[in-house]
Structures are given as C-alpha cells and as structure tokens.
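DM between two lab members

TW: hey, do you still have the ABC transporter ATP-binding protein entry open?
JB: yeah, one sec
JB: this one, 276 aa:
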Amino acid sequence: MKSATTGTQTPASPAGVGREIILESVSKTYAVKGGKEPVTALTSVDLTIARGEFLSLVGPSGCGKSTMLNIIAGLLPSSTGTVRIGDRAVSEPDPSTGIVFQKATLLRWLTIEDNVLLPCKVGRRVDTAALRRADHLLELAGLADFRHRYPRELSGGMQQRASIVRALVGDPEVLLMDEPFSALDEFTREGLQDELMRLWTDRPKTVVFITHNIAEAVYLSDRVGVMTSRPGTLKEIVDIPLARPRTPRLRTDPAFYELVSRIRGLIGHQEQGAHA
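TW: and the structure you got?
JB:
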C-alpha cells in the first residue's frame, strides 16, 4: 500500500497481535414500552476487523455505533447474527477485551494506581507482570508522578489517560473505545490521540474506536467505517493509506484533509437526504 503523504510503503498493522473480529448479519431491535413499534438500531452488519487493526466507526447521531460496540463487547445481545472474536463466539464480556467509555468512570475513593489495577484485582490477576505493565503504562501516559493521587486531583484529560491505562494494564487483545475524548477540549484531545497512538504502538492490539470527529478517525485509523442513518449499517469502509507512525504534522497535510473531506461527504449526503 502506498502512503498518501510520502509515496513510500505504508507499514501494515502489527502482525500476530490482537484478535480478529467478525460480525455476520448482526442486527439489534429494541422493544418499546406502551405498545409502540420496536426500534431497529442496527441492521445487517457484516464486518471483518483484522488482528492488530485500528478501525474507527463514524456516522450520524443515533446510527447504532455504540450499540455495535456493546454487542462486540458482550454487554448487549444481538437480535440476529453472530459476533466472533478469534475462535470465540461472543455471548458475554471477556477478560481479553478492554473497554474505554466516554467518561473515565474512576472510583473516587481509590488512588490512580489502585484504579488502574482494579480489573486485575477483581480477576485476581495481580502478579509481577501486571504490576510491571502498570508501571510502564503509567510512565508512558505521563501519570507516574500522580499514581498516588485521587481522581479529583487530576484534570479531565489525565483522568481519561488513567482510564485508558486501566483498560490496557491487563494487556487485552481487543480494545473497544466509545468516544473516549469527546468531552475534552481540542488541545487535550489531540494530545490524548498522540498518547493513544504511542500506547498502541508500544503494545499493539485490535482496536475498535467510535467517534463523531472525522479528523480524529482519520488520524488514528487503518480504516474508517462510515455508517448509515438509523437503522444503521455500514455504508462504506474507507482505507487510510497514511504512513505510520502518525505525528502531529500529519494534521496539516493535504492528503489528510482529502480523506477527512471524503468521509465528511459520505456522511453529509446521508444527512441531506434525511432532511430532503
């Protein structure tokens, strides 16, 4: 694959890391109380995400992005179809899958270090390897000096870094992220995008990332899935042939803006049609 920015070979996603994710004919319909018509949030989704791939999902509000993520996570059953992660059919949450939500959801009475180690403690997996990973990830995320602080003593951006470290400390093979930076200001958001890329490069895994920010999706991803309006399904998957490692300079590159514009156009056509 040729790089859109340099013309050189674009490094492939790291081989042999993470797990393949396969969705086949996945749909989700919600029952509505009061005898009202059921609401179909997601319909006929077929998708294969390669091992070690970073895939983002974008689309209009209410198109089923979070529903799809929750089904992949095993937090929500699908109405039809199947989801597989590696050789496992998804029916419930699994320790090999880490999740980062929009809010940091740290426990206010625990220190940052204790919050980070909480999943390992719950799973009784606090061993030397887990402690070593926690130390390393806290250092990478710039939180080593704040490990004994409490969430209220940290900024929103630092709390979200801690949330990401918490999801990674168990070294999951799959990382699911639901708009993790949406509540942050632009500069903090861009800093955390770079932080996430650094953490992902250091310990690669399969990532599914939901965002409303098209530039964020292009900056982070190997591919971007564009979803239709509700009932949501995949309209198109756009390859992002930009060389890695990604650096802040990429955000001013014409090739970067060309991809952002193309994806925005795919979403814009849907929104125009909905209001026609």
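TW: got it. The longest strand covers residues 39-49. Residues 1-12, 272-276 have pLDDT under 50 and may be disordered.
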